[in-house]
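Holo model, acetyl coenzyme *A. Inputs:
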Amino acid sequence: GLDIGKLLSTTGVTTLDPGFVNTASCVSSITFIDGDKGVLQYRGYPIEQLAEKATFIEVAYLLIYGELPTQAQLDEFNGKIARRMLLDERMRELFRAFPRGAHPMQVLAAGVTALGSFNRDTLDVHDEGQVEEASLRLLGSMPTLAAYAYKSSIGAPFLYPRNNLGYVENYLRLSFGTPQEEYEIDPDVVRAFETLFILHADHEQNASTSTVRLVGSADANIYASMASGVHALSGPLHGGANQAVLEMLREISKEGLDIKDFVSQVKDKKSGVKLMGFGHRVYKNYDPRAKIIKGHADQLLRNSGTSNHLLEMALELEETALNDEYFIERKLYPNVDFYTGLIYEAMGFPAQHFTALFALGRLPGWIAQWREQHAEKGRKIGRPRQIYIGATERDYVPINER
Ligand code: ACO
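Output:
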């Protein structure tokens, strides 16, 4: 076949594509997106079907191993993950060391990095058995790490995970349980989280996944790649948008701004204000994930009896934007982050913790993408080129002559 690397080095041709708008960095069999039609599929299965019918761990299995598990395979996989939820006792000290109020994404990334140090028998990226074990440890540890990042940020005591609880149940209990009282698990909340995590589980070559692949391409250990993914996800233009949306809604509410005035502010480029939770590099149509989440937000918030004020505002914002020339022209629609924050808030999470929930959902996708890349024959280190526009050659000037 065509050796693109050789072609480039011999012809001297370099393509310049800032932000990789038109550049594919890999071939993949994991996730398919048709951004114009608003289609998302994991391994060929429509996201709508998975969100409604599957469990998160079933989807994790699908993403990582390529096929839906049988009941026996799923039971075994669940069991393996559940047995890896307990962290090394000394990791609790790490979480205790962070100041109260530290951002959970920073604490989570530190936790994932540390996990590599506590699992040194799984760092060899060329050993399939170690990669498998590391994948399971990451999946098992992530709910505990995310819950401890939350507990650490509010200065609350940590609980131990329980083998007899499911993935989401464990996560919720670790987050909201206290040593004094048994945490009551609400099956509706569990199902909502299963759905939300499924919707976040993979999204092909977004910024965090590309980061995971790039770090992985250098043969850095899998924990280092995942921690880098957490950092990339934390940005407000990426996963951090879920926190930013809620803060935006609160600000509009606090300032008593009229929705139409706020949208005018967004349209005035000089203001530097963006409509957070809107727009997407790939979707030029309604984000199919946002469509599903919007339905859930509506139902959950109305059932929970909590204040619908922010939801009403979000709905009005969407309606106003979707009928505005600025947004129509640019094909800007709500993305996955537009409605998630409202649900997370109704469930009791502070806005600062929202992006950690995204990370928890995205982990299987990162693992699947890392493994797909590592299974590739003739894999190359990621190393983009540049177009140099700096000074031409000049002579060094001694410091006293400058
Ligand atoms: N509010 C106002 N204007 C916007 C928005 C927005 N949210 N998003 C894009 N635009 C405008 C841009 O200013 C630009 O206008 P111009 O052509 O007049 O210069 C045009 O729409 C195209 O936008 P780009 O920024 O070029 O699109 P890009 O693909 O580079 O960015 C991104 C995509 C980062 C998601 C962008 O839409 C954005 O910043 N949205 C808000 C943050 C957000 O919600 N991020 C979450 C994304 S989903 C996820 O990561 C899970």
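The mean pLDDT is 94. Residues 19, 206, 237-239, 241, 266, 274-281, 330, 332, 335-337 surround acetyl coenzyme *A (CB under 6 Å).
Archived with the compound record.
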